[in-house]
Amino acid sequence: MHLQIVRLLEWKIANHGKRFINISNKRENSFRKVYKEFWSPKLINKPPYEHFTQVGDPVLRTKAAEVPGELVNSKEVEHIVEKMIKVLRKFDCVGVAAPQIGISLRIIVMEFRDGLKDILPKPVYEARKMCTLPLTVVINPTLTVTNYEKHKHPEGCMSVRGYSAEVERFHSVLLKGKNLKGIENEVELSGWNARIAQHEMDHLDGKLYIDRMDSSTFICTCWETVNVKSGRVEIPFYK
Q1: Largest pairwise CA distance in the chain
Q2: Taking all residues of the chain, what is their mean pLDDT, rounded to a whole number?
Q3: What is the pLDDT of residue 5?
Q4: Which sign, positive or negative, has the C-alpha torsion 210, 79, 132, 238?
Q5: What is the distance between the alpha carbons of residues 18 and 70, in angstroms, rounded to a whole number?
Q6: Given pLDDT bands bounded at 50, 70 and 90, which one contains residue 13?
Q7: Contact of 180 with 81, CB cutoff 8 Å
Q8: So where are the chain's domains?
Q9: Which of 99, 107, 111, 96 is nearest to 48 (CA)?
Q10: Helices vs strands, H then E, count in the chain
Q11: Closest to 155 in 3D by CA, of 96, 112, 217
Q12: How close are the terminal C-alpha atoms of the chain, in Å?
């Protein structure tokens, strides 16, 4: 999720290449073999990426596969998570789901840094009920709504770069799942952090915020600059 002020058993590879990993009862390529293929020296860039996949990429519209319990604390999964954290911080965002770096697995990473309080306008920070969220890694997460009150705020996504829209989200949720050590954890989230969790969980089910948005509020976040610069504006997909 982009913060905007206005913002494994055996495996079978299917569909659009090795990013799509589904559990299979057949004796086929193991997870580790598939994983190593990600890193074989080829000219074509392979996931996990160090950029965000963009809307239109089939990986964003596919329900991600669960990570089998025996592989939760594997080196392969650990490396994927390290990539997710790197991308999260590289692009200064607050949440990332594995499909966003090209890996169709049910993993999310979230972090709302304390320093954002000094960057965001105080009225915005308070109105959107923002607060610090330490780095949180959740594997095979499940989400339960604990407060059905809804709030509508502008929301952006690094996989729909350069745009935002208002989206209704539930006020409070309970997020459960395993950490990298395979320990089951749960965290109660409310306000903006609950929004981050709902946004990232949508990614694991092949959904984007544009599926939930108030379409009348959908905007290009740099429309004013486009006018001032006579259209000479670039929306970068790198950093």
Answers
A1: 59
A2: 89
A3: 46
A4: negative
A5: 21
A6: very low
A7: yes
A8: 52-228
A9: 99
A10: 6, 8
A11: 217
A12: 16
Residue 108 near residue 138 (C-beta atoms within 8 A): yes
**Cβ–Cβ < 8 Å for 53, 99:** yes
Burial state string for 121-160 with b = 16 or more CB within 10 A and e = fewer than 16 = eeeebeebbbeebeebbbbbbebeeeeeeebebbbbbbbb
**Does 47 sit behind a cis peptide bond, omega within 30 degrees of 0 on the bond before it?**
no
Q: Give yes or no: 200 in active site.
A: yes
* SS3 of residue 179 by DSSP: coil
The residue ranking higher by pLDDT, 238 or 40, is 238
The answer to whether 176 and 132 have CB atoms below 8 angstroms apart is: no
pLDDT tens per residue, range 169-226: 999 999 999 999 999 999 999 999 999 999 999 999 999 999 999 999 999 999 999 9
For domain 52-228, the question of CATH label 3.90.25.10 is answered with no
In three-state form (DSSP H/G/I as H, E/B as E, the rest C), the secondary structure along 6-30 is: CCCCEEEECCCCCCEEEEECCCCCC
Burial (0-12, 13-18, 19+ Cβ within 10 Å), 200: buried
Tell me the percentage of the chain whose pLDDT exceeds 90: 81
Query: Which parts of the chain fold into alpha helices (H)?
Result: 31-38, 75-90, 116-119, 122-127, 191-204, 223-228
Q: What sections of 54-184 are H helices per DSSP?
A: 75-90, 116-119, 122-127
Which entry of 111, 155, 166, 200 is annotated as an active-site residue? Answer: 200
**Alpha-carbon distances of 38 from 46, 54, 182, 205, rounded to whole Å:** 6, 19, 24, 23
The percentage of the chain sitting over the pLDDT mark of 70, rounded to a whole number, equals 83
